Structures are given as C-alpha cells and as structure tokens.
Amino acid sequence: MIENVALVLEGGGMRGLYTAGVLDVLLEEDMMFPYCVGVSAGACNMVSYLSRQHGRNRHVNIDFIDDRRYLSWRNWLRHGSIFGMDMLFDIIPNRLVPFDHAAFSAYRGKAIVGTTDCVSGRPVFFEEQDMSGPDGFRHLQASSSLPLLARPVETDGHVLMDGGVSAPIPVEKAMEDGFGKVVVILTQPKGYRKKPISGAGVLQLVYGRRYRGLVDAMKRRHLVYNEELDVLDRLEAEGKACVLRPTDRLDVDRLERNSHKLEQLYRLGVSDAHCRIDELKRFVRERPQ
Fold first, then answer.
1. 232 Cβ partners below 8 Å, 6+ apart?
2. What is the pLDDT of residues 174-183, one digit of tens each?
C-alpha cells in the first residue's frame, strides 16, 4: 500500500464516470492509498475501488442507465428522489452487481464519506469500516442525496444531504487528518470555476423553515468550491498535490443519461490515467518539498 498520501474524490453525479475510469487504472497498477475521502458520486466510486472490483463502477453507472429505477423523473415523483435509492443501495449491491463486503472489510486504511448537515450546513464525515447490514450504505445514500432532487437522510443523530454542498473537494479534511500529500481526482476540466446557484428562492421555499444551514451552504457553495480549487493550485505548486481532471471538455451533465457520452467520459478517465501513471507513481514516492 502507498504510504502517507491521501486520495481525494469530488462528486459530480454522472460525471463521476471519469473518476471510475481513473480508479480502474489505479486498480490495474495495484495502487491503493492508506486514506480515501470522497463525497457524493466520488464516495460511491471510492467504495468499489476499495473493494477492488475493477469495472464495477462502469457497470453500475452505464449498464443500468436506461432502467427507470436507476435514474428518472418517475422516481422523483413517486419517491422524492430522481435517483432510485432502493435501486442504488439495495437492489444493485445486494442482487444485480453484488458488492464485495469481505474485500472492502479487508482494506486496512481509512475510507471517509463526506455529508452535509442540513441544520448547521457544516460537513460531517464518517469513517466506513463495514458496509454490510441493512444500514451499510446509509452514509453513501446521504452523501448522494442532492438538494431538491432527493430527500434528506436521517442517521447518526443528523439530517444529512449531499456531501458536495459543504465540502465539494475535501482536500482540507485529508490534510487535517495528517496527510501532507494528496492525489485528487476532479470531474471538471482545468479552468472550470463554479458559478452561484440559480433558484435560491426555491431552496428557501423548500428548506428555509427547517434547514436554514443547508440553504446558506448551497448559496455559498460556489465560493467554497472555487476556494478549494485555489488551495489545490497552491498545493500543486508546492509539490504536495497531484490533480487528475478531464483533459477534454465533454458535454456530460450530472444527470446525463446518454450511455455513449458516459462511456466516452469513462474512457477519457482511463486514457488520462494511463498517460499520467508514471508521473503519479513518482509523486507518491517522493517526499513533499
């Protein structure tokens, strides 16, 4: 296992197919990190990487895309979530594409899932050691619950939603936990900057009475995200971060359902990782300057 380097994964919904491609190359190279932190789609991709199930993320996110139980407005109308939470966190991992709980439990590092507390608007992180049992994927579900497109998840004394709201690129979490070097996988190309959210009035109407913290966090999300990009730029310049991000601006939305586009994005992740694998191996071996 790699020593003293953390792996950080941002979310991005279906843009996470890029991350899936990169992680499959890391598995091929037997590059396993002692600490992994992810939010939203990044967290979901992370656990299949840690269970060493090469190709599982691609299979789950592309081969079921036309199944309305996976992603559809029908889900939202019937169950309050555009992603079928039963499909994602029960039917698929327990029946259709079984998650390897034993392999995940054998991982000796730390797997951290980031969520957002709806009351405070602050990030809440959970260390995942055992994904089995009826609530094994509860934190992943919370981290993947997008505001307005899913229902909040109540667990561990919190009301939780999308981890990408409060800590979209959780680099500082990794550094607070003692890691001076990070490998970061982003799902947006170089030069991307997040813009202020539209529809703040709708957020206020839906969540303002009970979850003011969530509303405030959503309003500030673009500032937090762009500040985290600035931190990454500084860390890269200092030799403390290696950042992989799409080298091509593919038109893929976070709710993308075009399987051809998703396959292209996955292949881009594979290609970019192969092109930079030697650089990545040097980075994880070198001490920070």
1. 169, 171, 184, 241, 243
2. 999 999 999 9
Give the span between the Cα atoms of 175 and 180, in whole angstroms: 6
- How many helices and strands, by DSSP H and E, does the chain display? 12, 8
Cα(46)–Cα(185) distance, integer angstroms: 11
Task: Specify the amino acid at residue 77.
Answer: L
List, for residues 121-172, the tens digit of each pLDDT value. 999 999 998 888 778 899 999 999 999 999 999 998 999 999 999 999 999 9
| 259-268 contact pairs (CB < 8 A, 24+) | 259/62, 259/65, 259/66, 262/14, 262/17, 262/61, 262/62, 262/65, 263/17, 263/62, 265/15, 265/17, 265/18, 265/21, 266/17, 266/18, 266/20, 266/21, 266/58, 266/62, 267/21, 268/18, 268/21
Report the mean per-residue pLDDT for the chain: 94
Cβ neighbours for 155, distance < 8 A, ≥ 6 positions apart:
135, 138, 139, 142
Angle at 232 between CA 16 and CA 36, to 5 degrees: 50
Distance (Å) of CA 74 to CA 77, 79, 80, 214, 253: 5, 8, 9, 25, 19
How much of the chain, in percent, has pLDDT values that exceed 90? 87
Chain centroid to Cα 131, Å, comes to: 17
